[in-house]
Amino acid sequence: MIDKIPADDAYIVLDATFATMRECEEDDEGYGLIPDGAAIIDQGRVAWMGRRDAIPPEVWNLPTWSAEHRLITPGLVECHSHLIFAGDRRECFAQRAAGRSYSDVVWEGRGFSATVAATRAATEDELFAQARRRLDWFVSGGVTTIEVKSGYGLDVDNELKMLHVGRRLGALGVARVLTTLLAGHLYPFGVDQELFVEEVCTKLIPKAHEAGLCDAVEVYCEESIGISLDDASTILESAYKRKIPTRIIADHLSDSAGAALAPAFYAKSAAHLNFTDDVAVAALASTNTTPILLPIPYLELGCHQRPPIDRLRECGIPMAVSTGCNPGLSPTANLLTAAHFACTAFGLSPLEAMRGITVCAARALGMEGVVGQLNPGTVADFAIWDAEHPEELIYWLNAPICHSTWLAAVSHTQHQTEGMLAT
Predict the structure, then answer these.
(1) CA diameter of the chain
(2) Of 314, 339, 364, which residue is a domain's last?
(3) Closest CA to 215 of 264, 182, 185
(4) What is the per-residue pLDDT across 305-319, written as a single tens digit (0 to 9) for each?
(5) pTM for this structure?
């Protein structure tokens, strides 16, 4: 058990191996390892970090807190999740397991539309209760920053309802929650597509923005079941004109050319990218757009075409990794599982996967230099592990090795320890 964490404004963390995920003189592996490390925390931020024997003598009068020789990493960053929805899709899962295609199930109304119906029928409090449960799963697995989306409402009132839930999750204080308006997910069944896009641009986006409910606007650009390239461009332009950060989900089931659209609106991220071609990769390389790899949906669909990992590497494009948590193709809330499969399915190294769920995921959210690393000036969000090396986190599949998470000097843990706030 970890001793009670000091409530003081400044204190010293001792007895830890830190994996800072930054360039570090003490480590040539890339994880920024500091064995027998220490950190000075002041007002919820890292003020100093180094080896214990290098602690400035003038601060030894501060309270100390022992990690009891555990590994400490930055709190993990989940940069792409559909956390807010009602119900589940067990029936859809069973049908796909029996050999049905995902597109067929969607168009028959047994998949996506079932989630839309359940989400619309649920009250805000009911959606919040279900989403809170899933958020706690993420936090218990080391996540301290998470992006959550709307997208299952498909009309103004229900999309806003989902965004309100996202803001309520952030107000809990158990994780940093960024809320994305997935304004263009799928076209609603039985609704004229042109009228839908007009309502999104003239009503939904303005209302969400004016109420301060979204940190970004996103579209799902996909030929077979998503939003067309032209409509995706129209929606992103509406957000861009209001100076709202944009995100895109593209080239999931086919080459929709959506990834090439991302740089046109300075999109922070482009997710999936299974069918993205060299032209789109070059476009991504020309901007600050971060690819988000989603190995679990890839495996769930039994895809044979994976994202152009080698080409992304050649272009020096940082790659984020996410669960893509959703009721259809990624019913999981374990980010380390996604990192593991990013290695086995996509060929990432353990270091690339670890960067993908820390510093690169922070980049995908526009939070680089704030979260995802441990460095003087970054927030003191820690994940504390019963492990000796960060590669263990990627290697062990779904093992319960996260001891606790620490959000800017407030600890959240599965262990009911005096002085710690249990989740």
Answers:
(1) 70
(2) 364
(3) 182
(4) 999 999 999 999 999
(5) 0.93
